[in-house]
Amino acid sequence: MNDDTDDDTGNAAPAGYRRSAGTPRAQARRAELLALVTDDLARHGLVDFSLRRAAKAAGTTHKVLLYHFDGAEDLLREAVELLRERRVESSLAAAFDPGHAQTLAGRVRALWPVLTGTGEGQRALDQALGLAMYDPGRHAALAVDAADRFLPPLRAMCPPQWSDQRKEEVAELVFAALRGFLVQRRTGSSEGDVGGEAGFAALLRMLEREEAAG
């Protein structure tokens, strides 16, 4: 991400600059701008992201973006969140496809190819996680959003008779394991992700045993 300064960069606008954007028309315009910036992020990743680049992608000016967003970091966070929302929707569509086993292990198995694929915005999402790990003081929200978005559906995949605590524990375990496998897959040997695939297979066996235990 480019740390330009002042208006060109997207540091927060001067006090009083950002006016109310709460009207339906303004909200629709904000959503339109965010979608355009998100599409650019999906194509080109986070490297050299700035308010200037975002404005060009959205066909507008940095001042218009500052009317709707609190600077480049706010815009980046929302764009990453939207990218993740798209990926989550694709993952859940696969997980809950009736053509797959309607068990926790079956659903996790079904969503894995979506998470490991090279679909829309994957590079940007990988870079966002890297930023959060590299500078958590500044970019922790880029990773926290992932947990907030993935954990509820993972809990919903658990057997309904399980207690809330058990669902929470298993969802946290699955999320942490999948994130670890993804990081290994993105940063590991170019010869293949043998260790990650073995770990994923072990995770599925563990989930099958957990479900069989009732």
Automatic annotation (TrEMBL):
Q: Which keywords fit this entry according to its UniProt record?
A: DNA-binding
What are the start and end residues of every segment in region (Disordered)?
Answer: 1-24
Gene3D superfamilies, sorted: Tetracycline Repressor, domain 2 (1.10.357.10)
User: What superkingdom does the record give?
Assistant: Bacteria
InterPro entries on file: Homeodomain-like_sf, HTH_TetR
In this chain the HTH tetR-type domain maps to 27-87
What is the official name of this protein in its record?
TetR/AcrR family transcriptional regulator
Q: Which organism is it from?
A: Catenulispora subtropica
Q: What is the lineage of its organism?
A: Bacteria, Bacillati, Actinomycetota, Actinomycetes, Catenulisporales
